[in-house]
Design brief:
The chain is mainly α. The model has no long low-confidence stretch (mean pLDDT 90). It starts with a helix and ends with a helix. It has four helices and no strands.
C-alpha cells in the first residue's frame, strides 16, 4: 500500500473515533514520533527497529514489568 493510500485510510478511521482517550493517545504517538524525527537523525536500521517495536506494541506482543523482571532474574542466575 502506498503512503498516500495509507494516510487516507488512517484519516478516515480517525474521523470515526469518538473515544477521547484513544484520540489523545493517537495524537501523542504522532507528536512523539514527529519530535523524535526532528531531534534525532537515525539510520534506516534504527528506524526499522523502532517501527518493529511499535508494531509489536500495536499487536500486543509485549511483556509486563513483572515478566521482564523474572526474565532478568533468570539470566542473572545462569
Amino acid at each position: 500500500m502506498t503512503t498516500a493510500k495509507l494516510k487516507t485510510k488512517v484519516i478516515a478511521k480517525i474521523k470515526t473515533i469518538e473515544d477521547t482517550e484513544l484520540l489523545e493517545s493517537i495524537y501523542n504517538l504522532i507528536e512523539t514520533d514527529m519530535e523524535l524525527q526532528v531531534l534525532m537523525k537515525l539510520s534506516k536500521e534504527q528506524m526499522t527497529a523502532i517501527e518493529e517495536g511499535k508494531n509489536d506494541i500495536r499487536e500486543g506482543r509485549t511483556f509486563s514489568d513483572e515478566e521482564v523482571k523474572n526474565e532478568i532474574d533468570k539470566w542473572l542466575k545462569e
